[in-house]
Amino acid sequence: MAVKWMADPEAHDYDAAADYLSLIAEAAAVEATVGALKVADSIHRKAKDILRAACLALLPDTNVRVRSDLGKISDGKKLSPILLVRGDFRTNAPLQIADGYHRVCASYLTDENTDIPCRLVSWQS
């Protein structure tokens, strides 16, 4: 079954991204970066590449949020695009999945080559 996607992230995704990013960056950088995510164009990246760039493990289908998203995929419901903050190869800083880790994992479990719509920005200051 193919994964279906909404055209734009949901409003609460930006709040979730800000909550997560506030754990690893100062408030001004978080505010500016989330602002950039809101106006960024969508791009598509494969689930397998997102997980690799983020240096994150695949969450199993037993994870409650992944299981929920797998159910949505099975029911033909659309998932919200994911929000990403670019890593930096020069400092070995990984890509940050600011919001949508469980959606990436559910997509990977459906098909690792799933093209996922993303908003991708660099850290803003």
What brief labels describe this structure?
125 residues, alpha/beta, 4-stranded mixed sheet, two-stranded parallel sheet, 6 strands
For the biggest sheet, the summary is: 4 strands, mixed
Can you count the beta strands? 6
Distance between the termini: 41 Å
Mean pLDDT over all positions:
96
Gyration radius over CA: 14 Å
Helix share, percent? 40-55%
Global outline: globular
How many domain modules?
1
SSE ordering: EHHEHHEEEHE
Number of helices: 5
- In quaternary terms, these chains amount to single chain
- Order of the strands making up the biggest sheet: 2-6-4-5
Strand percentage, roughly?
15-25%
Give an account of the 3D structure.
This is ParB/Sulfiredoxin domain-containing protein. The protein has 125 residues and is an alpha/beta fold. The protein is built from five helices and six strands; from the N terminus they run E-H-H-E-H-H-E-E-E-H-E. The protein has helices at 11-21, 27-39, 47-54, 64-74, 101-110; strands spanning 4-5, 42-46, 78-79, 82-85, 96-99, 115-121. The strands form two sheets. Strands 2-6-4-5 form a four-stranded mixed beta sheet. It has a two-stranded parallel ribbon with strand order 1-3. Helix 1 (11-21) packs antiparallel against helix 2, helix 3 (47-54) crosses helix 5 (101-110) and helix 4 (64-74) crosses helix 5 (101-110). The longest helix has 13 residues, at 27-39. The chain is globular and about 40 Å long.
